[in-house]
Specification:
The protein has a single domain, classed as Immunoglobulins (Immunoglobulin-like, Sandwich). The protein has strands at about 1-5, 30, 35-40, 45-50, 70-75, 80-90, 90-95, 100-105, 110-115. By secondary structure, the chain is mainly beta.
């Protein structure tokens, strides 16, 4: 499985939620699938939502394992094109600010797009 796109981080556009700018880690191949990282130092909860989980706000919570604001999750995504956003503290839906590949979401904003190839 190869990853053909992106940078995934919560950064500049999330400052109003108390997050910090950080270098983009980008979705990347990891053991078990594709790893996403969202930097949100003051968040209490971060969830990745997208068409891969039917836009569920509870299916894929991210974890800040070191307590430093680097929320991460590894998803076993099959090859394909996926739209996603990060949900910060249950109220702020944001496209990945570090990912230049976006598409209109039909609600006046944008979704981030990741493409996974074999």
């Amino acid at each position: 499985m190869a990853l053909a796109v992106l940078v995934a981080s919560c950064g500049p556009k999330t400052q109003e939620m108390g997050t910090k700018n950080a270098p983009s880690a980008g979705p990347r191949e990891a053991e078990g699938g594709i790893q996403f990282i969202c930097y949100a130092s003051k968040a209490h909860r971060v969830v990745i939502v997208g068409d891969f989980n039917n836009w569920s706000t509870t299916a894929d919570p991210m974890y800040d394992r070191q307590g430093k604001g680097a929320w991460s999750i590894t998803l076993p995504l099959s090859p394909g094109r996926y739209e996603y956003k990060f949900l910060i503290d249950g109220e702020k839906w944001i496209p990945d600010p570090g990912n230049p590949k976006k598409i209109k979401d039909g609600f006046g904003a944008h979704n981030s797009v990741v493409e996974v190839k074999r």
